[in-house]
């Protein structure tokens, strides 16, 4: 399976380079947002329901290959939409419903 994934990545790179298409343009999208982003945000809400409040580190355990900055943006997007409340500042920030 790993060889297949590597082959697909290589093929996507060739397509990207030869056609000028960005890799993010090839990923599945829903209402302009990446499906991966939506999945991460759903997971964050489920985790908040389970634990009552989470920190960025709590969600990072599930997404080790995703940068903290991306996870922060996902959580901040939920805050901006009013789905999650941010409590505290910087390192001590918690997210709750």
Written overview of the protein:
This protein has 97 residues and is an alpha+beta fold. The protein has 2 domains: 1-27; 31-96, Winged helix-like DNA-binding domain superfamily/Winged helix DNA-binding domain (Arc Repressor Mutant, subunit A, Orthogonal Bundle). The protein has 5 helices and 5 strands, in the order ααββαβααββ. The chain has helices at residues 2-19, 23-26, 35-51, 56-60, 68-80; strands spanning 29-30, 33-34, 53-54, 85-87, 94-96. A 3-stranded antiparallel beta sheet has the order 3-5-4. The protein has a two-stranded antiparallel sheet with strand order 1-2. Helix 3 packs across helix 5 (68-80). The longest helix has 18 residues, at 2-19. It is elongated. The mean pLDDT is 80.
Helix and strand arrangement:
Elements: H1 2-19, H2 23-26, E1 29-30, E2 33-34, H3 35-51, E3 53-54, H4 56-60, H5 68-80, E4 85-87, E5 94-96
Antiparallel strand pairs: 1-2, 3-5, 4-5
Helix pairs in contact: 3-5
């Amino acid at each position: 399976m790993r060889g297949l994934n590597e082959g697909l990545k290589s093929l996507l790179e060739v397509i990207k380079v030869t056609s000028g298409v960005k890799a993010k343009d090839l990923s599945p999208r829903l209402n302009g947002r990446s499906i991966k982003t939506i999945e991460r945000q759903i997971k964050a809400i489920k985790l908040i329901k389970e634990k009552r409040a989470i920190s960025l580190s709590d969600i990072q355990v599930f997404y080790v290959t995703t940068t903290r900055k991306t996870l922060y943006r996902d959580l901040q997007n939920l805050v901006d939409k009013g789905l999650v409340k941010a409590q505290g500042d910087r390192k001590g920030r918690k997210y709750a419903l």
